[in-house]
Amino acid sequence: MNQWLIISHNFFQNHHPIPYILLNHIMEVDCNKPCILKDIFYNEERLEQYCKEAARKRNQARLNKLRPMELKLLPYFGNGFMNKEIADKFKVSESTIKAHKRNAIKNLGLKNSTELICFIQKCGIK
Hints:
Number of helices: 7
């Protein structure tokens, strides 16, 4: 745990009634990078709003790295369509769909198709 996290945890733990688990969630959302909290969160609801907004911004930045066709295919990947079904719908080869999926996984910084599906569902892409 880096020094900033220890300091911020101690500050909030001693001065504000914020559950430890939610403070950890902020650090997860911000990828464990030091961040300056511009607001003091006096209740769990405001803290949860902050976490959701930070995750939305991070996910949007990741989605911006995708090409238009990769973005167009995300709902199909997320809804469990087979590569062959998607290829038939878009009138392209199955290997083209596989290449787009592979590029989407790489550009989003994910490891595999399972992580891609989880990411798509977490973003609410339908």
